[in-house]
Design a protein that fits this description.
Layout lengths: L5 H4 L8 H14 L9 H17 L2 H17 L8 H8 L21 E7 L1 H6 L1 E12 L15 E2 L8 E6 L2 E6 L8 E2 L12 E12 L8 E4 L15 E7 L6 E3 L2 E8 L1 H6 L1 E7 L2 E7 L8 E4 L15 E7 L7 H14 L5 H11 L1
Parallel strand pairs: 1-9, 11-15
Antiparallel strand pairs: 2-7, 3-6, 4-5, 8-9, 10-11, 12-13, 14-15
Helix pairs in contact: 2-3, 3-5
């Protein structure tokens, strides 16, 4: 059976925001929920389709793989859809908390994702780099092991929800579960708090990791380090660390895609007569041939002197734009020669300048 487009399933476009994605999934999941469509195989399949589509599109990494390579790309990354209704309802409960289907799931909570902003040099974009970063992340308290209870004690099961953390209420043709008002969804009550973590079950630790910056990375790019976020609570999986790239401005070069640009000053004689000049590149100084008659604003392209393509297919170009420099304080002899050139060319110049040179000649 050919799989439908995930964006089509959720009735959204590729530039959908996170809030719009959630809203659309909520509406479709409620419409085709099995409790509302008993013995309706078509509704069951659409409910499953929507859950699978949402699971992919809400994950930045899975979504990027899907956008680039489609369903086949997801298979290559290890995701092949949901294995059964247990997985489907796990995604569905992010919004609704329907009870009765997940009572046997592990109580451990996954750790939060973290963000780290790093500023790198322009040269790091060209060559790539390995950077060490240090940050704070949350982990289970080593004294209470994440329970929040005083050492030697343990949390007691909540009598209101029976330890589930949810209070189930029947509403028409399906059941709804809400967070227990007594234990606030934890399923247990702590009588005496752990002092080191003050009953939270969590403490902060310093973590240092190595981040590989790929050559060609762009400003604003995000690198994902799996499992380097906050540690999971009581057996839950750790979150991820998202490293956001910022690039320092270069004093000579500017980036334009995979090309770099720079401006170079040349003299009037060099522009008229032509010259071989030294220019800076990312690989050191190189010689650029300026042909005679070059106009100010002329741009020369140096192939293969730009930013490496992040997927490893060569480099962009360096675009060199030349500007003719006007002398601010020309000498008397320079003024004489310029005046003579103006007369030969028939160019009009200020009469005061001409009068000045007439006096000099006399």
């Amino acid at each position: 059976m050919v799989k439908r487009c995930y964006y089509e399933i959720l009735c959204v476009t590729k530039n959908v925001t996170e809030a719009e994605l959630k809203k659309s999934y909520r509406q479709i999941a409620m419409k085709y929920h099995p409790d509302r469509n008993e013995n309706n195989k078509d509704a069951e399949e659409k409910f499953k389709e929507a859950a699978e589509a949402y699971e992919v599109l809400r994950d930045l990494e899975k979504r990027q793989i899907y956008d680039n390579y489609g369903h086949e790309g997801l298979k290559g990354s290890g995701f092949s859809g949901f294995s059964g209704f247990e997985d489907i309802f796990s995604a569905f409960e992010d919004f609704f908390g329907f009870g009765g289907r997940s009572q046997g799931r592990q109580r451990g909570n996954p750790g939060n994702d973290l963000r780290y902003d790093i500023e790198i040099d322009f040269e790091d974009v060209v060559e790539g780099a390995d950077k060490k970063i240090t940050f704070d992340r949350g982990i289970d308290c080593s004294v209470c092991h994440g329970t929040g209870a005083k050492e030697g004690t343990k949390p007691e099961r909540c009598s209101t929800c029976g330890g589930s953390g949810q209070v189930v209420r029947s509403q028409g043709f399906f059941s709804m579960s809400t967070t227990c008002p007594k234990c606030h969804g934890k399923g247990s009550i702590i009588k005496e708090f752990c002092k080191p973590c003050k009953g939270t079950g969590r403490i902060k630790e310093k973590k240092t990791v190595s981040v590989k910056i790929p050559a060609g990375v762009e400003k604003g790019s995000t690198l994902r380090l799996r499992g380097e976020g906050d540690g999971g609570n009581q057996g839950g999986s750790p979150g991820d660390l998202y490293v956001v790239i910022h690039v320092k401005e270069h004093n000579i070069f500017k980036r334009s895609g995979n090309d770099i640009t720079c401006d170079i000053l040349i003299s009037f004689p060099q522009a008229v007569l032509g010259a071989d000049i030294k220019i800076p590149t990312l690989d050191g100084e190189e010689e650029l041939s300026i042909p005679s008659g070059t106009q100010t604003g002329k741009t020369f392209r140096l192939e293969g002197r730009g930013i490496p393509h992040i997927k490893g297919f060569g480099r962009g170009s360096q675009l060199v734009t030349v500007h003719i420099a006007t002398p601010k304080n020309p000498s008397k002899r320079e003024k004489e020669l310029l005046l003579e050139l103006a007369e030969i060319s028939g160019d009009h110049v200020k009469s005061t300048i001409k009068g000045f040179f007439d006096k000099l000649k006399k």
